[in-house]
Each structure stands twice: as C-alpha cells, then as structure tokens.
UniProtKB/TrEMBL annotation:
The chain crosses the membrane at residues 36-57, 69-92, 112-130, 151-171. This is Aa_trans domain-containing protein. Pfam families: Aa_trans. Residues 7-180 form the Amino acid transporter transmembrane domain. It is found in: Membrane. InterPro entries: AA_transpt_TM. GO terms for cellular component: membrane. Keywords: Membrane, Transmembrane, Transmembrane helix, Transport.
Length: 184
C-alpha cells in the first residue's frame, strides 16, 4: 500500500512536470466506441480480484466485516486510480499505451516508480497467488503443514507465472479480454 501510494504520487508529480511540455504536442483522439469498451475492460480487470475474496474472508479475524473491507479497498483503489488517469489524460492524451510510466519525461521519477511498482508486486505475490496455490495443493494432495511438496508446487507456480510474463510481449489485449470476461 505504501509503495503503491508513493508510485501514485510520483506519477502525478511526473505528469504535472510534463504538462507544460507534453500537453501541447498531443492531440485528442477521435472517439471510437470500440476504444471505450477496451478501456472499460482494462478498468474492470483492475477491480477483478473476486477470485481471492473467499480466501481473504476466510482468513479474516471477523469475517462479518468483509463487506466493509471490500468497500474500503475499492474506494482506496479509486482514489489512487483517479489522479493517475486524470493527469495522464490531460498531459499525454492519446500517446499513452499500456503504461503511463514510459511517458514520464523525468528519468529518476520513472525509475523510482518502476522500483515502487516492483516492490509492490513482490510483496503482493503471496496474497494474490495464495488461492491458486491452495487449490493446487489440494488437487495434488499436499499435506497442510510445511513440506517439500508445498515448496515444489509454489515454486512451479512462480516458474509458470514467470514463463507467461516473459513469453507474452504485450499484456494490454489480454487484460482487455479478461476485463470483458469480468462482465459475465
């Protein structure tokens, strides 16, 4: 949460610094309905953590408070996404592709954001992959205590994730597809 908040602040600061230079060189894209739905799919993917919800609720001290925690988490995400989307659109218009980070002109801000996002991803891997790991452990009949079987399955999961991340060069269309599937 702290690393993500710092990254958001740095993105807003970097976009603000670039506003004078970049906003005058970019044009507003023409409206195309398909672009709206692509953007909607990407946005919905960002909020699509429902596969982890049962595990999170099960692990809570007071599972009856789950609704409050979901509303708070989604509200905090909206507060973080809002300024990034607004500043990105106002500053860079249609020149942004899958990520706003390469559009930021100040190199040290770009690098700091990349470090913050990397730390965020590393710290959230345990939470995000826990439901998948538990399902795989149950599927393969692993004991519930720490053992070589659990290490093997969790290592295999990470190797598979790294393989997919390295072999798929552009996640944008894939995120759009999964976001659209969230609507179903």
């Amino acid at each position: 949460m702290i690393t993500t908040s710092c990254a958001v602040v740095l993105i807003v600061v970097g976009s603000s610094l670039d506003y004078g230079l970049c906003s005058s060189y970019t044009g507003m894209p023409s409206y195309q309905p398909k672009n709206f739905f692509l953007a909607l799919g990407t946005l919905l993917f960002a909020y699509g953590g429902h596969s982890a919800f049962p595990t999170i609720q099960h692990d809570m001290r007071n599972p009856a408070e789950f609704t409050k925690s979901v509303v708070l988490a989604f509200s905090m995400m909206a507060v973080m996404y809002g300024p990034v989307c607004i500043m990105g659109y106002l500053t860079y218009h249609d020149t942004i592709r899958d990520s706003i980070i390469p559009s930021i002109q100040t190199v040290w801000i770009q690098q700091a954001i990349n470090i913050m996002i990397t730390v965020h991803c590393i710290l959230t891997l345990t939470i995000v992959f826990n439901p998948l790991n538990q399902e795989l452990e149950e599927l393969f009949g692993c004991p519930q205590h720490f053992g070589w079987q659990r290490v093997l399955i969790r290592t295999g999961t990470m190797i598979a994730v790294a393989f997919v991340a390295e072999t798929i060069p552009n996640f944008g269309p894939l995120l759009d597809l999964f976001g659209k599937l969230d609507l179903i």
